[in-house]
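As a representative case, we now present a protein record of this kind.
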Amino acid sequence: MNERTAATYSIVWKNRMAGIDQSAWEALAMPLQTPLLEWEWLRLLEESGSVRAETGWLPYHLTVWSGSRLVAAAPLYVKGHSSGEFVFDHAWADLAERLDIRYYPKLVGMSPFSPVVGYRFLIAPDHDEEKISRLMISAIDRFCIENRLSGCSFLFVDPAWHARIEALGFTSWRHQSYVWKNSGFKTFEDYLAVFNTNQRRNIKRERKTLKQLGITIKALTGEQIQRRLFPLMYDYYTRTNDQYGPWSCKYLTAEFFEGLYAGYRHRLLLLAAFADDDPVELPVGMSFLLTKNDRLYGRYWGSGERLNHLHFNACYYSPIEWAIEHGARQFDPGMGSAHIVRRGFAAVANHSLHRFYDPRLAQILQLHIDEINRQEQQHIDALNEALPFVRH
């Protein structure tokens, strides 16, 4: 779908990343902190069959062109449900049903299945960001209204982008997530030193457990990651999701993991747990992370058997150790329970941005969102009260 706008810009909607030139997209995406808006990641989600209409994720990407040059883009998806988003808007869907308002389909901007902060419009730095943002929001509004979509949401948004889109009429909804920050640590012992005596002892004990079991965790990046590990990672990913039944987020296919080998190993960190007496060196468990610049992002994890404290070591301690050794300043571990606070991860706010096109839903959202956000901030503050740090 092509749409003429101002004299110098045109809007084109694309239903496949493969239909957008990789180099043109990457010119916009590579300067961003997040790796999850890069062309190869998004393309592989689609080409592997993980993202498609049959799974309830219909790609409909917005692109802005100045002549033949791509100057802005936004990965967007028409959704027939709320699964795989990690922003739990089911209360709004229930309210819409009571008001006899059709809630689905809706339009969502995010990197699918990834509760990782960093979503934003991709805009060339030599073009007016405010002007193009307004242009893109207007195009989105027209698209949603013409196609009878209930609303548009941008999830896990870039904090620096948040205020710009809120100023264009989107409502901000606060959510809780976790982050570990490197406070100038030079060694893992420096990280341990911030904890109170009891928790420092607990972490050391949990680290020691793997040695007693004869398990060694190795950090593998880029060319070090063998092709045979990707099918195994898919198996472990599937096992982990199967534990959660209807609450799982099992969208990624075997083809997605296998496709990472050729085009995306440069962004990967695998923490692979090997049994010391295994002659074939096949990991008994793995955590799958992404790296870019000075950031680390936890994504998936799994194991072939339940081993005491393997999860804590593969998903938290070993990534933190790697982050310290490689100068990473921040580690987003992904979704997690409150036990993660005991490992030194602070609770922080992230935000989603929402616009409903039915005036009744829009009015109710505006009436209640301040109280919703206040309660969420109270929850964040309560979690941080439990951080087991030395009190000065």
